[in-house]
Specification:
Layout lengths: L8 E4 L1 E2 L11 E3 L4 E3 L6 E2 L1 H6 L23 E5 L6 E5 L2 E5 L6 E4 L11 E2 L6 H9 L15 H4 L3 E30 L2 E25 L6 H6 L9 E2 L9 E3 L5 H22 L6 E7 L2 E21 L2 E8 L5 E3 L5 H27 L7
Parallel strand pairs: 1-6, 10-16, 11-14
Antiparallel strand pairs: 2-9, 3-4, 4-5, 6-7, 8-9, 8-14, 10-13, 11-12, 11-15, 11-16, 16-17, 17-18
Length: 369
């Protein structure tokens, strides 16, 4: 007899932001930078929301010594405080919506203890801004598949807080380069070239503040890197109230597992700075280096991204917009059917133009078929 497999599930406590005036569900408004109640129209600052909230941010722990726990949970079940529905969420989801009443549900265990973020950059761009940017993709792209202008796809755009590790890194060391300078001169009809070869060493120390690395394997690192940079001057202390009206993910990669990528990015930048410091040379090639990266600090941060996935011919195309700066990226496929039709129309128009020109220049008797 086949053994029936069952998925393990766990009841989750949820956090929900309520309007201090009327107790209705309230969301963060990116344009106002405040929380606005759609029911009574009241607006509140973070301080005012905190004063009326019994849900404090989870206590931070020393993440350098944090132990990774494997609870083997594939999905979780939470109870919507507004309508009472029981909703199933992915085990990596930290904030989502009730599909029945639309209220935000923040899963407390995904944002507490070692999963409690240190910092957050609140959304500054609205969903309308993201939709406008997405629709702008069609401008000047007549061969874009029509599916990308489908209203159903456009409505799938959602704001997500992506988990990032931010590292403060100190680099020290030096690089050795092989460099050249070139001199040219002419005597009479003879042209002379002299190449001088040098061994060049540059070194020093450099500090990098908050080098970002995406902490979730569910998001394409190339896309996340492309919509950078974020303005870290707008980083604020994390509060779960900022998640109101948005989705959120928790990290599934520990800081120690992604630090090497951050270190490599800082080392490569240091090499370029040292290399560009030697401008008098015509060519410069790094022969070897002894740069060492040292981690000074790390932060767990939530950064805002608007995102939509569009499926076309069994392939998913991802479009993302920086929810703070508005930087937008997306890969657009070519509609082969449109391309063929476009070519036929251009060819037909060109052929008709040639025929008309021939008739005008040579007359009907001058056209030879």
């Amino acid at each position: 007899m086949a053994k029936e497999e069952t998925k393990k599930k766990k009841k989750e406590d949820t956090l929900e932001n309520r309007c201090p005036s009327c107790k209705a569900s309230i969301k963060f408004n990116p344009k106002l930078g405040k929380w606005k109640c759609d029911y009574c129209g009241s607006e509140f600052t973070l301080e005012e929301m905190q004063a009326h909230s019994d849900n404090a941010s989870g206590e931070k722990k020393n993440r350098k010594d944090a132990k990774v726990e494997d609870d083997n949970i594939e999905y979780v079940e939470y109870h919507c405080e507004s309508c009472g529905a029981e909703i199933i969420a992915d085990s990596e989801t930290a904030a989502t919506f009730c599909v029945y009443c639309g209220n935000t549900a923040i899963l407390q265990s995904k944002l507490s203890g070692k999963f409690s973020p240190d910092l957050v950059i609140p959304f500054k761009n609205t969903k309308e801004d993201a939709i406008t940017a997405f629709k702008g993709l069609s401008k000047g792209r007549p061969l874009m598949p029509k599916d990308f202008n489908n209203e159903q796809n456009i409505e799938k755009i959602r704001g997500i807080y992506i988990p990032f590790w931010l590292f403060d890194i100190n680099n020290s060391g030096d690089i050795e380069m092989s460099a050249t300078t070139v001199e040219t001169w002419r005597i009479g009809d003879t042209h002379y070239t002299k190449t001088n070869y040098y061994r060049v060493i540059r070194g020093g120390t450099m500090d990098y503040i908050k080098v970002p690395i995406d902490g979730s394997t569910r998001f394409d690192n190339a896309i996340m890197n492309t919509i950078e940079p974020f303005d870290y001057n707008e980083l604020v202390k994390y509060n779960h109230a900022y998640l109101s009206g948005f989705y959120a993910e928790k990290y599934d990669q520990e800081a120690k597992d992604v630090y090497a990528e951050a270190a490599d990015r800082s080392i490569n930048s240091t090499k370029e700075v040292f290399k560009n410091d030697t401008r008098v040379y015509a060519t410069k090639t790094i022969v070897k280096d002894s740069i060492i990266a040292k981690e000074n600090n790390r932060y767990y941060a939530m950064l805002p991204v608007w995102m939509v996935n569009v499926k076309y011919k069994d392939k998913m195309y991802i479009f993302a917009m920086n929810g703070q700066t508005g930087e937008f990226i997306g890969d657009i496929p070519l509609d082969v059917g449109k391309a063929i039709l476009y070519f036929i129309l251009i060819f037909a128009a060109a052929f008709a133009g040639v025929m008309i020109l021939s008739l005008i220049v040579y007359g009907l008797g001058g056209v030879v078929f």
